[in-house]
Amino acid sequence: MSAFLVVDTNIHNSEKYEEYKKLAKPIAEQYGGIYRVRGGKIDVRESELWQPTRIVIIEFPDVKSAQAFVDSKEYAQVKHIRHDNAECTLFIVDGG
């Protein structure tokens, strides 16, 4: 059953963040990740809990694959670029 990694990102340094995107995408793909949404226009209709900024959604074959990507040694080597140049909320949701 599919799982989705969802990230809401407020980017502070676009140039550095582009570097992160180039490095992170092939790592996600190694773990079966398919980018479904990558920063498209957001049409917020209700926002009682949160106001999204920039949404990325990556579909994985299952929760374990999504967790393996986030926890991988390969991703650990690049996620600091995201942390240094953006504020994020990242979560994994079961596609159940």
- Please write the string of helix (H) and strand (E) elements: EHEEHHHE
* Second CATH tier, the architecture: 2-Layer Sandwich
Distance between the termini: 7 Å
Q: Give average pLDDT, whole number.
A: 96
Summarize the amount of helix as a percent range.
25-40%
Dominant shape: globular
What spatial order of strands do you see in the largest sheet? 2-3-1-4
- The count of helical stretches stands at 4
> Roughly how many Å is the radius of gyration?
13 Å
Broad CATH class: Alpha Beta
Proportion of residues in β-strands: 25-35%
Instruction: Give the biggest beta sheet.
Output: 4 strands, antiparallel
Number of domains: 1
CATH topology: Alpha-Beta Plaits
* Structural class designation: alpha+beta
> Stretches where pLDDT falls below 50 for ≥5 residues?
none
Number of strands: 4
